[in-house]
Amino acid sequence: MSEVEGSAxxxxxxxxLDVPALRAAGRRPVPLRQFVLKVHSRCNLxxxxxxIYQGRDRSWRGRPAxxxxxxxxxxxxxxxxxxxxxxxxEVRVDLHGGEPLMNGPEAVLEYAAAVRAELxxxxxxxxxxxxxGTLLTAATLDRLAAAGIRVGLSLDGGTAALNSxxxxxxxxPSWPAASRAARxxxxxxxxxxxxxxxxxxAADPALxxxxxxxxxxxxxxxxxxxxxxxxxxxxxxxxxxxxxxxxREVPYGQWLxxxxxxxxxxxxxxxxxxxxxxxxxxxxxxxRTESVGLSPSAALVVDTDGAIEQVDSLKTAxxxxxxxxxxxxxxxxxxALDHPGVAARQLGIDALGAVCRGCPxxxxxxxxxxxxxxxxGSGFRQPxxxxxxLEHLIRHIAHRLDTALTYHNSVTLPDRESPQRGPGSASxxxxxxxxxxxxxxxx
Length: 443
Ligand code: SF4
Prior knowledge:
443 residues; alpha/beta; TIM Barrel; 10-stranded mixed β-sheet; 16 helices
């Protein structure tokens, strides 16, 4: 589909955003720092909610199953060219699928080696492979570790029942193999990037959090299911974007707030990226994720055929929604930065509509994930379909932070040399609790 055809679905930004005028006005693109490279476009699982194989975009059917050696090499050269042109010291490379370990680790190792071989001297790449874990073995982990590749694992929780939506094509559960992978990774913290979990409202948030924390991941990504105003997520009604703010039902906000309280009040656990990012934003720091905040997106995807794509989550919007019409054989990544969809994701508050721009939590929320703003026939300039849920969560975290800081200011901390005891002073226990809270907010 051409950009003009796509504009029937998303006139903003595809035809309404004038990128040449933006550039002429001095708005420069932000260099890319994250490259999501598709190693394999098929998967051995058939998760019921998968946004790649169950989404509106079916372009995966026409792509090669595995990235060819020539595609890997050309992609690596394009990354190196971008790194060199923009003087980047390091980039992040995420090797994805489908399932990137479909045919063993060779393709993953080959892609990583190609990127490292092409990078200019003194420049680095943090390389991670994101897997469903079912094909992960100790021998594979050894080879990935030797190549400096860390592993991220996708799970819906830490029990068989919580992973019932993650089955293979014959309906067999993935949990026995995936839980084996989780145990292998927990024994190798240096190579463990973390867990990625898509929220299921039907699952008890406490059980999800505690069971995942028990797998000892260094970090935990809790993802809102990819959805939009035309195709709302499970548990949210169809409603109009202009009625987004102040909606009474906030099931996702409540689910996440429950997990936040367990994380904040409990024993030190994994870093939960969404919570850390919101806390950072509340403290005035920039975000490092596209889910919240106003920082420009600096990530692109290269598919198995070398096509340069925006982000996979856009596959839930309409057929070919992630397409840029560019590929690594003919185009540079700098050219991709001038695609209206890519430029829109770098505009921060200027990409948002009037509802978001007038919102009191906009600096923290940032309109949520770009994909979740989609409305068919209009595009990506609405508030997030999770608007009320995001505001609920942000206000909840702000309240908890405020309470902790009020507590901090109300106590007289003990002198280091001669600890005080008594009314109005912090006992050793209080001091430890406060330290625990403070250390958990560090990024
Ligand atoms: S900034 Fe977030 S909470 Fe505010 S209106 Fe936009 S989507 Fe809703």
